[in-house]
Design brief:
Shape: globular
Radius of gyration: 13 Å
Distance between the termini: 35 Å
Helix content: 25-40%
Low-confidence stretches: 1-5, 92-98
Structural class: alpha/beta
Number of helices: 3
Strand content: 15-25%
Mean pLDDT: 76
Length: about 100
């Protein structure tokens, strides 16, 4: 499992939607550029064989706050060294916070 980004190193990118068309292309681009990526997916088995060595796959759902906590742990520890790239699912919609 990749460790949280050290100060001055490349940020850890938390990517949702990596099993989809757009998210999959983003994942490929991040990996080609040498970025550390953490993918949050409802189906880790669908993604596990498609990722590079610096990429971590975690089970979770962007609509389930409890499943986000482990995925966000590095981001919460060093928010300035993390990026969250989210690709919305075409199968539903997400409402805006009140």
């Amino acid at each position: 499992m990749p460790s949280p980004a050290e100060p001055g190193s490349q940020p850890l990118i938390l990517l949702t939607g990596a099993t989809g068309y757009v998210g999959g292309r983003l994942l490929e681009r991040f990996e080609r550029s040498g970025q550390s990526v953490r993918c949050l997916t409802r189906r880790p088995e669908a993604l596990a064989q498609r990722v590079g060595g610096k990429t971590e796959v975690m089970k979770g759902d962007a609509l389930d706050a409890e499943s986000l906590l482990p995925a966000l742990s590095a981001s919460l520890a060093a928010p300035s060294d993390s990026i969250w790239a989210s690709v919305p699912s075409s199968g539903g919609s997400v409402g805006s916070p009140a």
